[in-house]
Specification:
It is a single chain. About 50% of the residues are buried. The chain starts with a helix and ends with a helix. The chain has ten helices and 16 strands. Helix 1 crosses helix 8 and helix 4 crosses helix 10. It is of the alpha/beta class. It is about 35% helix and about 25% strand. The strands form four sheets. An eight-stranded mixed sheet has the order 1-2-4-3-5-16-6-15. A hairpin with a 3-residue loop joins strand 1 and strand 2.
């Protein structure tokens, strides 16, 4: 089936429902909720999706799995192909300072990471595709995920069967460094894998006038932090290791007998992850030996990162160029050091791609800040690109 015409009209169709999407976005933003507590959000989305004719299933309390049944001529009625689109739902524990008319009514909670835009774009996609089910040679599964900002909801949704029958998954995240109206495409490694590194150093207390009688846990821990922050994997690839928490001592003139610090290591690819873990342990052991202290080390895996598959990323790029114009598509060269649990969906399906949606807000309105407030056009543009990509995928499939 030739989908060229649909790709050319996808943006105008998304712009045609802009007012509806803006109302939805404002409602979602006004009722921002933290991870696993997205009750108002989930109920609102469920009503919207059911009104569009989608089959909606609720899992994990607040997560939604909504299926739009395609009726295209290439659809296999017995085992229809299926492709998924993911949007995260949770907000952040921040007090909003945008001053907008639809500012969050939930004290200390706001959509400072753009998840209101992500959800709105997904519903917009469902609205567009529900009118064009005849172009879908399979089903589109919409995944509304809780708790991306916390412990993560992607793997839990997978464990509940959310990806059953799905062969690829697509999604996106707002990016204030990309101009509004543009999207960023990245081949291969995109978002970093992350490990939470917690270290407790044990020494021996002594009066500060006689340090030779003790073993300074604070001094040893400080040296560890300093050296660890310079570590890089042997491959030379980009990595970041930083610590945001440090606690030690309670008397100003007594050498501390314990010290605790915690941070996060960000790397790309399992080989680099393993290499950094090994170097962290070796570095701490070396300093322990020099400073006559011991250390308990806990390296806990967080998210595995996002690695886009080439075929799906190429499809995303082609559709984005058709919908927005080639001048509005950036092929990103550098991966992002931030992390995302979307990668679990790709890993489970074996195929998928994640893009960045330009907001153009820059440093003045960066993500995870109280002033972040993307324009509704970011959701409109994303909905248009998503719609084209999902139709194209199912036709090629």
């Amino acid at each position: 089936m030739d989908t060229t015409g649909f790709k050319k009209q996808a943006l105008s169709e998304a712009q045609g429902i802009k007012e509806d999407l803006d109302r939805l976005r404002q409602d979602l933003h006004r009722h921002a909720e933290l991870g696993n507590a997205e009750h108002y959000t989930s109920a609102l989305l469920e009503r919207q999706l059911r009104a569009l004719g989608l089959d909606v299933k609720r899992i994990l309390g607040t997560a939604l799995v909504a299926r739009l049944h395609g009726t295209g001529p290439g659809r296999n009625a017995d085992t229809p192909a299926a492709v998924a689109l993911r949007a995260d739902m949770d907000a952040l524990p921040l007090t909003e300072a945008t001053g907008c008319a639809f500012q969050s009514e939930n004290a200390g909670v706001m959509h400072a990471c753009g998840h209101d835009i992500h959800m709105t774009a997904a519903v917009g996609t469902a609205a567009i595709l529900s009118k064009h089910a005849h172009l879908l040679n399979g089903d589109v599964v919409f995944l509304f995920q809780p708790d991306e900002e916390g412990a993560g909801g992607a793997q839990r949704m997978i464990d509940e069967g959310a990806l059953e029958g799905v062969s690829a998954v697509f999604g996106g995240h707002v990016n204030p460094d990309i101009p509004l109206g543009k999207v960023g495409i990245k081949y291969g490694a995109f978002y970093a894998a992350s490990d939470v590194v917690s270290v407790t150093v044990h020494g021996k207390a002594a009066h500060s006038s006689t340090p030779e009688k003790g073993a300074d846990a604070l001094l040893a821990a400080a040296e560890m932090v300093s050296v660890l922050c310079d570590l890089r994997p042997s491959s030379g690839e980009k990595a970041v290791l930083r610590f945001g928490e440090f606690r030690s001592g309670n008397v100003f003139n007594v050498i501390a007998d314990t010290a605790y610090f915690c941070g996060i290591s960000r790397t790309f690819g399992q080989q680099n992850v393993n290499d950094m873990r090994r170097k962290i342990v070796q570095t701490i052991a070396g300093i322990c030996s020099l400073k006559n202290v011991t250390a308990d080390i806990d390296i806990g895996k967080s998210y595995g990162g996002v690695v886009n598959t080439d075929a799906e990323t190429r499809l995303f790029e082609e559709c984005a160029r058709s919908v927005l114009g080639s001048e509005n598509v950036e092929v990103l060269k550098e991966p992002r050091m931030g992390t995302e649990d979307f990668g679990y969906f790709i890993d489970s399906c074996g195929a998928g791609s994640f893009l960045n949606i330009g907001t153009g807000t820059g440093r003045e309105q960066a993500v995870h800040t109280p002033t972040f407030l993307p324009d509704i056009d970011a959701a409109v543009n994303a909905a248009a690109v998503y719609s084209a990509a999902l139709v194209e995928y199912l036709n090629r499939k």
